[in-house]
């Protein structure tokens, strides 16, 4: 479904039939955000998040008692799982546990009911698990990296993608960094996508070693930005656009316009509290052409 269209105020808020138990449970105690508050957030922004979370395998960060208690990543079902959270066999993992996915707002609210505070989809849909329909460059700042440096890094990734005929969109992570996301027409497989992303990250690190690293070693990150290309592998995930984050502040990962980046205070500027109003007020969704902009990886670079 295209993401553009009328502002949310013109549309009725969609309703879910999933019952929340303990709706007043504080998921973000310091921010006063409850389970009900998170469900209301997702109902308000449903049409924005739907294309990124429906019919894809999901990894969930669950914190059933809120962000100050135990949290765990979960890729498979649990006892008593709501029927709105679907279980889908992984054809490459015969005998393994099924993948999790949702189809509708009931699925999303069932995730909230289960204490899911972060939603991490695959970069490929259930209908085509072997061919990613997006690339993600996760820019992770080392100690001492300022916002201007993050913004410059994101633009440098964009410039390289655009030079290859690809589109680059950007979102805040809701944590410390930025995610540059490229919609792909699903022609290439995972090995080629990962090889392409690695080549790009390695080239940036080779040309500006004082600014960028492309290896995950934490010690090398001081003052530098890690261009984390490793999200681009089968079964790897990155947090979904518009997903909440299980961190103090109740921030969300938010698509932003390239021109907007300099004005932001940081990657956690948008939150469950201010996100819906931002989305309702904007005349244009910076990611509204996401699917329209999808082209295949350049053929010359498709070999893994
Ligand atoms: P930040 O901007 O603070 O880096 P982030 O969401 O990019 O926020 P990262 O630590 O860079 O956080 O992780 C990138 C992605 O890798 C996560 O969004 C998640 O999908 C995946 N990931 C990280 N840790 C785990 C884990 N323990 N298990 C599964 N997936 C993980
Ligand atoms: Mn990151
Ligand atoms: Mn990372």
Regions with little confidence, pLDDT below 50 for 5+ residues: 1-5
The biggest beta sheet is recorded as: 6 strands, mixed
Strand portion:
15-25%
Topology as H/E string?
EEHHEEEEHEEHEEHEEEH
Shape: globular
Bound molecules: adenosine-5'-triphosphate, manganese (II) ion
Structural class, by secondary structure, is alpha+beta
Work out the helix count: 6
Binned, the helix content reads 10-25%
Report the end-to-end length measured between terminal Cα atoms.
Answer: 31 Å
- Count of DSSP strands: 13
Q: What is the average of the pLDDT values? A: 94
Order of strands across the widest beta sheet? 11-12-8-10-9-13
Rounded Rg: 19 Å
Overview of this structure, please?
- The protein has 304 residues and is of the alpha+beta class.
- It contains six helices and 13 strands.
- The protein has helices at 35-44, 46-53, 105-113, 147-163, 190-207, 275-281, and strands at 26-28, 33-34, 58-62, 72-74, 85-88, 99-102, 116-121, 134-141, 169-172, 178-183, 212-213, 225-228, 255-256.
- The strands form four sheets. It has a six-stranded mixed β-sheet with strand order 11-12-8-10-9-13, covered by helices on one side.
- A hairpin with a 4-residue loop joins strand 1 (26-28) and strand 2.
- Helix 1 packs antiparallel against helix 3 (105-113).
- It is globular and about 55 Å long.
- The structure holds adenosine-5'-triphosphate and manganese (II) ion (2 copies).
């Amino acid at each position: 479904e295209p993401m553009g269209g009328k502002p949310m105020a013109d549309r009725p808020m969609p309703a879910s039939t999933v019952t929340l138990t303990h709706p007043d449970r504080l998921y973000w105690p310091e921010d006063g955000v409850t389970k009900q508050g998170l469900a209301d957030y997702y109902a308000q922004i449903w049409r924005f998040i739907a294309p990124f979370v429906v019919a894809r395998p999901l990894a969930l960060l669950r914190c059933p008692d809120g962000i100050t208690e135990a949290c765990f990543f979960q890729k498979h079902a649990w006892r008593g799982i709501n029927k709105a959270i679907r279980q889908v066999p992984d054809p490459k993992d015969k005998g393994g546990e099924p993948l999790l996915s949702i189809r509708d707002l009931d699925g999303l609210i069932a995730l909230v009911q289960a204490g899911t505070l972060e939603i991490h989809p695959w970069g490929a849909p259930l209908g085509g698990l072997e061919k990613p329909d997006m690339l993600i460059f996760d820019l992770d700042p080392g100690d001492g990296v300022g916002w201007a440096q993050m913004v410059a890094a994101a633009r440098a990734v964009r410039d390289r993608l655009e030079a290859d005929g690809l589109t680059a969109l950007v979102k805040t992570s809701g944590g410390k960094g930025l995610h540059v996301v490229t919609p792909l027409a699903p022609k290439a497989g995972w090995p080629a996508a990962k090889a392409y992303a690695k080549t790009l990250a390695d080239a940036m690190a080779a040309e500006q070693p004082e600014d960028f690293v492309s290896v995950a070693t934490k010690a090398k990150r001081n003052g530098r930005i890690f261009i984390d290309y490793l999200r681009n592998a089968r079964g790897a995930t990155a947090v979904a656009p518009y997903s909440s984050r299980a961190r103090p502040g109740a921030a969300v990962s938010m698509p932003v316009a390239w021109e907007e980046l300099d004005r932001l205070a940081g990657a956690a500027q948008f939150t469950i509290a201010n996100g819906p109003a931002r989305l309702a007020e904007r005349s244009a969704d910076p990611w509204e052409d996401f699917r329209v902009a999808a082209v295949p990886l350049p053929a010359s670079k498709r070999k893994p």
